[in-house]
Amino acid sequence: MISSLTPASEHRELQAILVGGSAGAIEVVSAVLGALPADFATPIIVVIHLPRNRPSALAGALGGKCRLALREPLDKEPLAPATVYLAPPDYHLLVDSGPSFSLSVDEPVNFSRPSIDVLFQSAADVLGSRCAGVLVSGANPDGAQGLCAIQKAGGLVTIQDPDEAAQAAMPKAALALCPNATPLSAKGISQWVQQLSAWQTSSSRGAK
To answer: Does 5 map to a domain?
Structure first.
């Protein structure tokens, strides 16, 4: 049974779950991914601000406990189930029609490339209510406008509680723009995502 964290009226078959963060985010994202079951089908797309001049170490940092495939997507690659996608350094990562991925070298947004806002806004435009957004610790406002775009498109959103976040600027900016979003602890975010997994697994079984 799904708890009040995810109201029954909001249950829907999601095409992607988007996660954004910056400073202090890796620990939270690692815990969320590590708690997911191996049969979690919905693609998860992660943007964490990275140094632009060297290869990403995110796969190594996040992959130790994650039961799902974990990789950087290619341009025009379709989204696949049971996969965690990591935005590559020095590219904006977007969701395009299909749904598929698009990579861009447009100017940085909020001093960041990849930018969380760019990913979240593209997902809101393409997927609408069939996506969910999660914004966690970070030291700048990137992601706040994109999270609100997901909410306005009918998607599900949650924000890490700024009082718990290692860097509060990012979740505070999101709450300022999306005051109706309920802030959750890192543990609460993990439970929230797991409940989406549990609902979709039972929904898929019921459809057979």
So the answer is: no
Question: Which domain does 48 fall in, by range?
Answer: 12-202
What's the pTM value of the predicted model, to 2 decimals?
Answer: 0.89
Q: Quick check: is 208 in a domain? A: no
Q: Which two tokens stand for residue 121?
A: 């806004």
Token pair in block for residue 92: 């904006």
End-to-end CA distance of the chain: 19
- Which residues have a Cβ under 8 Å from the Cβ of 41 and sit 6 or more positions away? 81, 82, 200, 201, 204
CB 155 within 8 A of CB 130: yes
Domain at 38, CATH number: 3.40.50.180
Q: How far apart are CA 108 and CA 22, in angstroms?
A: 15
Residue 197's SS3 state is helix
Q: Which residues are catalytic?
A: 22, 49, 142
What would the pLDDT profile of 131-183 be if each residue is shown by its tens digit?
999 999 999 999 999 999 999 999 999 999 999 999 999 999 999 999 888 89
Dihedral of the alpha carbons of 180, 183, 189, 194, in degrees to the nearest 10: -30
